[in-house]
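Morning - manganese (II) ion inputs below, output right after.
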Amino acid sequence: MKRYLDVSDEVRKALDEGKPVVALESTIISHGMPYPKNVETALRVEEEVRKSGAVPATIAIIGGRLKAGLTKDEIEYFGKKGTAITKASRRDIPALVAKKEDGATTVAATSIIAGLAGIDVFATGGIGGVHRGATETMDISADMDELTKTGVMVICAGAKAILDLPLTMEYLETKGVNVIGYQTDELPAFYTRKSGLNVVWRCDTPEEISDIWQVQKYLYPNTGLLVTNPIPEEYSMDPVYINKEIDEAIREMNKLGIKGKETTPFLLDKIQKLTGGESLESNIMLVLNNARLASRIAAANCRK
Ligand code: PSU
Ligand code: MN
Protein backbone atom coordinates (compact mmCIF):
# COMPACT_ATOMS: atom_id res chain seq x y z
CA MET A 1 0.00 0.00 0.00
CA LYS A 2 3.04 2.28 0.41
CA ARG A 3 2.65 3.02 -3.26
CA TYR A 4 -0.32 5.31 -2.57
CA LEU A 5 -0.66 5.57 1.22
CA ASP A 6 1.23 7.67 3.80
CA VAL A 7 0.62 6.78 7.42
CA SER A 8 2.03 9.41 9.81
CA ASP A 9 4.83 8.30 12.16
CA GLU A 10 2.61 8.72 15.22
CA VAL A 11 -0.21 6.62 13.74
CA ARG A 12 2.18 3.98 12.42
CA LYS A 13 3.83 3.62 15.82
CA ALA A 14 0.48 3.28 17.62
CA LEU A 15 -0.68 0.62 15.15
CA ASP A 16 2.59 -1.31 15.42
CA GLU A 17 2.37 -1.26 19.22
CA GLY A 18 -1.29 -2.35 19.25
CA LYS A 19 -2.46 0.96 20.72
CA PRO A 20 -5.92 2.42 20.00
CA VAL A 21 -6.27 4.61 16.90
CA VAL A 22 -9.37 6.55 15.79
CA ALA A 23 -9.86 7.72 12.20
CA LEU A 24 -11.48 11.13 11.53
CA GLU A 25 -12.85 12.49 8.24
CA SER A 26 -11.99 15.65 6.30
CA THR A 27 -15.21 16.43 4.36
CA ILE A 28 -16.61 17.65 7.67
CA ILE A 29 -13.69 20.13 7.77
CA SER A 30 -13.84 21.42 4.18
CA HIS A 31 -17.55 21.04 3.39
CA GLY A 32 -19.31 20.59 6.73
CA MET A 33 -18.42 23.68 8.78
CA PRO A 34 -17.33 27.28 8.10
CA TYR A 35 -13.75 28.53 8.56
CA PRO A 36 -12.26 29.00 11.16
CA LYS A 37 -14.66 26.90 13.31
CA ASN A 38 -13.90 23.90 11.10
CA VAL A 39 -10.16 24.00 11.89
CA GLU A 40 -10.74 24.73 15.58
CA THR A 41 -13.15 21.78 15.75
CA ALA A 42 -10.89 19.37 13.86
CA LEU A 43 -8.02 20.15 16.25
CA ARG A 44 -10.30 19.94 19.27
CA VAL A 45 -11.58 16.55 18.15
CA GLU A 46 -8.00 15.28 17.77
CA GLU A 47 -7.29 16.58 21.28
CA GLU A 48 -10.36 14.81 22.64
CA VAL A 49 -9.21 11.51 21.11
CA ARG A 50 -5.78 11.95 22.73
CA LYS A 51 -7.30 12.81 26.12
CA SER A 52 -9.39 9.65 25.84
CA GLY A 53 -6.24 7.57 25.39
CA ALA A 54 -6.17 6.98 21.61
CA VAL A 55 -4.23 8.38 18.67
CA PRO A 56 -6.20 10.44 16.11
CA ALA A 57 -5.73 9.79 12.40
CA THR A 58 -7.41 12.51 10.37
CA ILE A 59 -7.77 11.23 6.83
CA ALA A 60 -7.57 13.11 3.52
CA ILE A 61 -5.97 13.04 0.07
CA ILE A 62 -3.12 15.52 -0.45
CA GLY A 63 -1.44 15.93 -3.81
CA GLY A 64 -2.68 12.48 -4.76
CA ARG A 65 -1.32 10.79 -1.61
CA LEU A 66 -3.76 8.97 0.67
CA LYS A 67 -3.02 10.29 4.16
CA ALA A 68 -3.75 8.71 7.52
CA GLY A 69 -2.69 11.29 10.11
CA LEU A 70 -2.47 14.99 9.20
CA THR A 71 -0.29 17.76 10.63
CA LYS A 72 -1.85 20.93 12.10
CA ASP A 73 -0.80 22.82 8.99
CA GLU A 74 -2.53 20.29 6.75
CA ILE A 75 -5.74 20.56 8.78
CA GLU A 76 -5.50 24.37 8.56
CA TYR A 77 -5.05 24.06 4.77
CA PHE A 78 -8.18 21.91 4.40
CA GLY A 79 -10.21 24.26 6.56
CA LYS A 80 -9.07 27.40 4.81
CA LYS A 81 -9.57 26.08 1.27
CA GLY A 82 -13.00 24.77 2.26
CA THR A 83 -15.27 23.87 -0.62
CA ALA A 84 -12.48 24.63 -3.14
CA ILE A 85 -11.19 21.15 -2.19
CA THR A 86 -12.89 18.30 -4.02
CA LYS A 87 -15.38 16.39 -1.90
CA ALA A 88 -14.08 12.86 -2.38
CA SER A 89 -16.16 9.71 -2.09
CA ARG A 90 -15.30 6.12 -3.16
CA ARG A 91 -15.56 6.81 -6.89
CA ASP A 92 -13.16 9.79 -6.75
CA ILE A 93 -10.13 8.24 -5.04
CA PRO A 94 -8.38 6.68 -8.07
CA ALA A 95 -8.78 9.83 -10.20
CA LEU A 96 -7.52 12.15 -7.46
CA VAL A 97 -4.50 9.88 -6.88
CA ALA A 98 -3.72 9.63 -10.61
CA LYS A 99 -4.04 13.41 -11.06
CA LYS A 100 -2.11 14.12 -7.83
CA GLU A 101 -4.92 16.30 -6.48
CA ASP A 102 -6.36 17.02 -3.04
CA GLY A 103 -9.56 15.47 -1.74
CA ALA A 104 -11.63 15.97 1.41
CA THR A 105 -12.80 12.48 2.26
CA THR A 106 -16.43 11.62 3.05
CA VAL A 107 -17.42 8.83 5.42
CA ALA A 108 -17.15 6.36 2.52
CA ALA A 109 -13.70 7.50 1.36
CA THR A 110 -12.39 7.88 4.91
CA SER A 111 -13.48 4.32 5.71
CA ILE A 112 -11.61 3.03 2.65
CA ILE A 113 -8.36 4.80 3.55
CA ALA A 114 -8.68 3.92 7.24
CA GLY A 115 -9.14 0.28 6.22
CA LEU A 116 -6.04 0.37 4.00
CA ALA A 117 -4.04 1.83 6.92
CA GLY A 118 -5.28 -0.89 9.29
CA ILE A 119 -7.56 1.37 11.37
CA ASP A 120 -11.01 -0.05 12.08
CA VAL A 121 -12.65 2.59 14.31
CA PHE A 122 -13.79 5.90 12.82
CA ALA A 123 -15.62 8.79 14.51
CA THR A 124 -17.66 11.43 12.69
CA GLY A 125 -20.73 13.64 13.16
CA GLY A 126 -23.45 12.41 10.86
CA ILE A 127 -23.43 9.85 8.08
CA GLY A 128 -24.85 10.22 4.57
CA GLY A 129 -28.00 8.19 3.92
CA VAL A 130 -31.12 7.92 1.82
CA HIS A 131 -32.30 11.41 0.92
CA ARG A 132 -35.90 12.52 1.10
CA GLY A 133 -37.49 11.98 -2.30
CA ALA A 134 -34.97 9.22 -3.10
CA THR A 135 -37.72 7.04 -4.60
CA GLU A 136 -37.63 9.60 -7.46
CA THR A 137 -34.08 11.02 -7.35
CA MET A 138 -32.25 7.81 -6.30
CA ASP A 139 -30.02 10.02 -4.12
CA ILE A 140 -28.58 7.48 -1.71
CA SER A 141 -25.19 8.33 -0.21
CA ALA A 142 -22.26 6.10 -1.11
CA ASP A 143 -21.69 6.02 2.68
CA MET A 144 -24.49 3.45 2.86
CA ASP A 145 -22.94 0.90 0.50
CA GLU A 146 -19.47 1.46 1.91
CA LEU A 147 -20.70 -0.22 5.07
CA THR A 148 -21.07 -3.40 3.00
CA LYS A 149 -17.59 -3.17 1.47
CA THR A 150 -15.13 -2.06 4.13
CA GLY A 151 -14.56 -3.50 7.59
CA VAL A 152 -14.57 -0.23 9.51
CA MET A 153 -16.94 0.74 12.30
CA VAL A 154 -18.41 4.25 12.10
CA ILE A 155 -19.42 6.08 15.28
CA CYS A 156 -21.90 8.87 14.53
CA ALA A 157 -24.79 10.75 16.15
CA GLY A 158 -27.32 9.12 13.82
CA ALA A 159 -28.42 10.92 10.71
CA LYS A 160 -29.85 14.38 10.14
CA ALA A 161 -33.50 14.76 9.26
CA ILE A 162 -32.30 16.18 5.91
CA LEU A 163 -32.48 12.46 5.12
CA ASP A 164 -35.42 10.09 5.04
CA LEU A 165 -34.62 8.23 8.26
CA PRO A 166 -37.13 5.34 7.87
CA LEU A 167 -35.85 4.68 4.32
CA THR A 168 -32.25 4.91 5.55
CA MET A 169 -32.96 2.20 8.14
CA GLU A 170 -34.74 0.04 5.53
CA TYR A 171 -31.79 0.39 3.18
CA LEU A 172 -29.29 -0.62 5.85
CA GLU A 173 -31.49 -3.59 6.75
CA THR A 174 -31.55 -4.73 3.11
CA LYS A 175 -27.77 -4.40 2.91
CA GLY A 176 -27.26 -6.38 6.11
CA VAL A 177 -25.72 -3.57 8.12
CA ASN A 178 -26.15 -3.62 11.89
CA VAL A 179 -27.08 -0.32 13.54
CA ILE A 180 -26.18 -0.21 17.22
CA GLY A 181 -27.62 2.33 19.64
CA TYR A 182 -25.22 3.30 22.42
CA GLN A 183 -27.24 3.40 25.64
CA THR A 184 -30.41 3.87 23.60
CA ASP A 185 -33.09 1.79 21.89
CA GLU A 186 -33.96 4.66 19.60
CA LEU A 187 -32.07 5.87 16.54
CA PRO A 188 -30.68 9.32 17.38
CA ALA A 189 -31.34 12.05 14.80
CA PHE A 190 -28.13 14.07 15.02
CA TYR A 191 -29.32 17.35 16.64
CA THR A 192 -31.84 15.46 18.73
CA ARG A 193 -31.65 12.26 20.76
CA LYS A 194 -34.79 10.72 19.29
CA SER A 195 -36.21 9.87 15.88
CA GLY A 196 -39.16 7.63 16.68
CA LEU A 197 -37.30 4.71 15.02
CA ASN A 198 -35.64 1.78 16.72
CA VAL A 199 -31.99 0.79 16.34
CA VAL A 200 -31.28 -2.87 15.65
CA TRP A 201 -29.21 -3.68 18.74
CA ARG A 202 -28.66 -1.73 21.90
CA CYS A 203 -25.28 -1.77 23.70
CA ASP A 204 -24.63 -0.09 27.02
CA THR A 205 -20.83 -0.27 27.17
CA PRO A 206 -17.90 0.13 24.76
CA GLU A 207 -16.94 -3.42 25.76
CA GLU A 208 -20.23 -4.83 24.46
CA ILE A 209 -19.75 -3.07 21.11
CA SER A 210 -16.20 -4.35 20.91
CA ASP A 211 -17.38 -7.93 21.59
CA ILE A 212 -19.80 -7.78 18.65
CA TRP A 213 -17.08 -6.25 16.48
CA GLN A 214 -14.62 -9.07 17.18
CA VAL A 215 -17.15 -11.64 15.98
CA GLN A 216 -18.21 -9.57 12.98
CA LYS A 217 -14.62 -8.98 11.86
CA TYR A 218 -14.03 -12.69 11.88
CA LEU A 219 -17.26 -13.65 10.12
CA TYR A 220 -17.59 -10.71 7.70
CA PRO A 221 -14.21 -8.98 7.45
CA ASN A 222 -15.42 -6.59 4.78
CA THR A 223 -18.56 -5.32 6.46
CA GLY A 224 -18.83 -2.17 8.54
CA LEU A 225 -20.89 -1.40 11.60
CA LEU A 226 -22.84 1.74 12.38
CA VAL A 227 -22.71 2.82 16.02
CA THR A 228 -25.13 5.63 16.84
CA ASN A 229 -24.42 7.79 19.86
CA PRO A 230 -27.05 10.33 20.92
CA ILE A 231 -26.02 13.98 21.34
CA PRO A 232 -25.64 14.81 25.07
CA GLU A 233 -28.95 16.07 26.48
CA GLU A 234 -27.59 19.53 27.34
CA TYR A 235 -26.61 20.24 23.72
CA SER A 236 -29.59 18.67 21.96
CA MET A 237 -31.92 20.99 20.06
CA ASP A 238 -35.68 21.47 20.15
CA PRO A 239 -36.97 18.96 17.56
CA VAL A 240 -39.86 21.16 16.38
CA TYR A 241 -37.56 24.13 15.81
CA ILE A 242 -34.73 22.27 14.05
CA ASN A 243 -37.09 20.25 11.85
CA LYS A 244 -38.82 23.45 10.75
CA GLU A 245 -35.45 24.90 9.69
CA ILE A 246 -34.50 21.66 7.93
CA ASP A 247 -37.77 21.75 5.97
CA GLU A 248 -37.03 25.35 5.01
CA ALA A 249 -33.50 24.41 3.84
CA ILE A 250 -34.88 21.57 1.70
CA ARG A 251 -37.49 23.87 0.12
CA GLU A 252 -34.73 26.35 -0.76
CA MET A 253 -32.58 23.55 -2.22
CA ASN A 254 -35.41 22.30 -4.43
CA LYS A 255 -36.15 25.83 -5.58
CA LEU A 256 -32.50 26.31 -6.58
CA GLY A 257 -32.38 22.88 -8.25
CA ILE A 258 -29.35 21.72 -6.25
CA LYS A 259 -28.54 18.05 -6.88
CA GLY A 260 -25.96 15.29 -6.45
CA LYS A 261 -22.89 15.80 -4.29
CA GLU A 262 -23.76 19.48 -3.68
CA THR A 263 -26.93 18.49 -1.79
CA THR A 264 -25.46 17.61 1.60
CA PRO A 265 -22.98 20.56 1.85
CA PHE A 266 -25.73 22.98 0.75
CA LEU A 267 -28.13 21.74 3.42
CA LEU A 268 -25.48 21.73 6.17
CA ASP A 269 -24.56 25.33 5.38
CA LYS A 270 -28.16 26.50 5.03
CA ILE A 271 -29.19 24.96 8.36
CA GLN A 272 -26.22 26.59 10.11
CA LYS A 273 -27.25 29.97 8.72
CA LEU A 274 -30.95 29.53 9.50
CA THR A 275 -30.23 28.64 13.13
CA GLY A 276 -27.73 31.46 13.58
CA GLY A 277 -24.92 29.15 14.60
CA GLU A 278 -26.92 27.28 17.26
CA SER A 279 -26.86 24.08 15.21
CA LEU A 280 -23.12 24.47 14.62
CA GLU A 281 -22.51 24.46 18.37
CA SER A 282 -24.58 21.27 18.75
CA ASN A 283 -22.74 19.76 15.79
CA ILE A 284 -19.35 20.40 17.43
CA MET A 285 -20.44 18.96 20.78
CA LEU A 286 -21.78 15.75 19.23
CA VAL A 287 -18.59 15.17 17.24
CA LEU A 288 -16.54 15.50 20.45
CA ASN A 289 -18.91 13.06 22.14
CA ASN A 290 -18.44 10.57 19.29
CA ALA A 291 -14.67 10.96 19.42
CA ARG A 292 -14.72 10.01 23.12
CA LEU A 293 -16.86 6.92 22.58
CA ALA A 294 -14.79 5.84 19.56
CA SER A 295 -11.60 6.09 21.63
CA ARG A 296 -13.10 3.89 24.34
CA ILE A 297 -14.25 1.29 21.79
CA ALA A 298 -10.82 1.33 20.11
CA ALA A 299 -9.22 0.79 23.53
CA ALA A 300 -11.57 -2.14 24.21
CA ASN A 301 -10.64 -3.65 20.81
CA CYS A 302 -6.97 -3.46 21.76
CA ARG A 303 -7.56 -5.46 24.93
CA LYS A 304 -8.97 -8.38 22.94
N1 PSU B 1 -23.88 14.59 7.34
C1 PSU B 1 -23.61 15.45 8.34
N2 PSU B 1 -22.41 16.10 8.34
C2 PSU B 1 -21.47 15.91 7.38
C3 PSU B 1 -21.77 14.99 6.32
C4 PSU B 1 -22.98 14.34 6.36
O1 PSU B 1 -24.44 15.62 9.22
O2 PSU B 1 -20.40 16.53 7.41
C5 PSU B 1 -20.75 14.72 5.25
C6 PSU B 1 -19.95 13.44 5.56
O3 PSU B 1 -18.63 13.61 5.08
C7 PSU B 1 -20.65 12.41 4.71
C8 PSU B 1 -21.03 13.22 3.50
O4 PSU B 1 -19.86 11.30 4.38
O5 PSU B 1 -21.41 14.49 4.02
C9 PSU B 1 -22.15 12.59 2.71
O6 PSU B 1 -22.31 13.23 1.49
P1 PSU B 1 -23.33 12.62 0.40
O7 PSU B 1 -24.67 12.76 1.03
O8 PSU B 1 -23.14 13.49 -0.79
O9 PSU B 1 -22.91 11.20 0.20
MN1 MN C 1 -25.95 12.00 -2.88
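Note: The pocket of pseudouridine-5'-monophosphate (ligand 1) is lined by residues 25, 27-28, 32, 106-107, 125-126, 128, 141-143, 160, 190, 261, 264, 268 (CB under 6 Å).

O.
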